[in-house]
Write a structure and sequence with these properties.
The protein is an alpha/beta fold. It has a domain at 2-166 and 198-229: Rossmann fold, CATH 3.40.50. The protein is 42% helix and 17% strand. It has helices at 11-22, 52-58, 78-98, 135-149, 173-182, 201-214, 236-247, 258-275, 284-291, 299-304, 313-328, and strands at 2-6, 26-31, 42-46, 64-67, 103-107, 119-122, 156-162, 165-166, 187-189, 195-196, 199-200, 225-228, 234-235, 254-256, 294-296. Helix 2 (52-58) packs across helix 3. The longest helix has 21 residues, at 78-98.
Amino acid sequence: MKVLVTGAGSLLLAGVAQQLAERGDEVICFQRRVVEKSHPNIAMFAGDIRDRGSVTEAAIGCDAIIHGAARVGVMGSWEDFYSTNVDGTINILRAATEHQISRLVYVSTPSVAHVGQAIEGDIASPATIGRKHAHYAESKAQAEILALLANSEQLGVVALRPHLVWGPGDTQLVGRIVERARQGRLVMVGSGNALVDSTYIDNAVSAHIAALDSIAPGSRCSGKAYVISNGEPRTVNELMSRICLAAEVEFSPKHIPAVIARNIGSVIERIWPLIRKDEPPITRFVAEQLGTAHWFDQRPAQEDLNWKPQVSLDEGFVRLADWFRSQESF
């Protein structure tokens, strides 16, 4: 199978591309900057997901697409997020139609359906739109809706929402927690006892490959969205403390009541872009995520995609600790 993988510069999509190549698929990695390819079955294609011509060219001869290219974070204008996440997805859908591609895995996020309340054992609910200040979540929700609406007799589309992916080399969840712990700036919203799902990187990779193999026009997963996780909810406190333990950094977070954290986040997300260029320490959306439970029923994904996580969270923490120790040896 020839597969176009967009956003292959991320930890997750780089892993997906590598695994596909190692099993014998031909992989086209579409990203803004070309890097040295890691496998003979991987070809690099430099382009901007907002450029319809580049996307269409990259998709020539492909049988399937895994679309993960996105603008992430909270900094930037609505136009920045919309052009990449929504217009970019439209370009992917047009390329799929033009080249008669029959399989599309859209890489989404659980935040498309998170509106501030606790989620406990639910399945993936429909994406929700209308959030004025959460540009990432709003643009991804709009893009997911468009992708699933494109599901047809010619194109099978499935959306995966991987939840809090972490592992060796992760600069997002792991990197930020460890950096802030080292600087004494780690914050815990509320008691830290809210149960949350997370996903070890190897399991997130295998889930996307399972989705690619399962999706086809009229298949069981066609036109559906699934939240992907290890299915082992842990408290925010345990997740953060185990990551700090693996990195051998002190875990002594500052606790902020949930209501205060949300109010502070609302203020910061408005003024931060006016004074800084980096990511703010907290936003209202982040405060809601850290202060409320969000874990999901994994049976639909496991049954419809014929997939199960192979690496437990406990084993993942061991691997993470081994990785941190290996970094110290260089």
